Amino acid sequence: MLNYSTIFDNGMTYGNYREVVYTRLLKGKTTGDNHSPEMLHYTKMNNHRMDRIEKNMVLSSDLSNVISTIKGKYNFLVISEGWCGDAAQILPVFERIVEEAKEKFQMKIVLRDENLALIDNYLTNGGRAIPVVIILDENKNPILPKWGPRPQVVQKLLKQWKEESDDMGLIAEQLHGWYAKDKTQTTQSELVELLKQLE
Predict the structure, then answer these.
(1) Is 111 part of a structural domain of the chain?
(2) pTM: predicted TM-score of the whole model, two decimal places
(3) Which of 2, 64, 101, 129 could form a disulfide with 124 if both were Cys (CB 3.0 to 4.6 A apart)?
(4) CA-wise closest residue to 191 among 94, 107, 103
(5) Cα(120)–Cα(105) distance, rounded to whole angstroms?
């Protein structure tokens, strides 16, 4: 039986998470056990992506409006890793939501490979895809199905790209090209629908 309250309390704030990932990079490591040149490259690129999104992203009026109607207090429990490209594109959006309404939301991030019992409750097509966002109520009990590991439209595109090629470098390029053009708008639109379910 998972104790969500303990898992959440032991998680990292967004700022802590960014610091941990950056500090490990300086030591030639990433999060998790695989410190291969590829994983370090992904992590370094993700660091730049998050910097860029933090600097340029603006919450849509639809998302801001939904946030303003929420009366309760909720917690975002996010499962991530520093090398995960989707996480780099998505975590800054959740952090901006928290910044917009600190009285309503808190967010903690936990590393997937240190929390296998948790991620194994939130598999995507049988795999441990991340990021996964679990919304907890004020008492830190999960209340909605998970969100993630990416917007639905990209999930479908990724399936298609993987059927067309097994070149992971090319697939990553297509994925991040899509995110760059989209500028978080599709993620924000999905989160409008997600947050509408909160009171």
Answers:
(1) yes
(2) 0.95
(3) 129
(4) 94
(5) 25
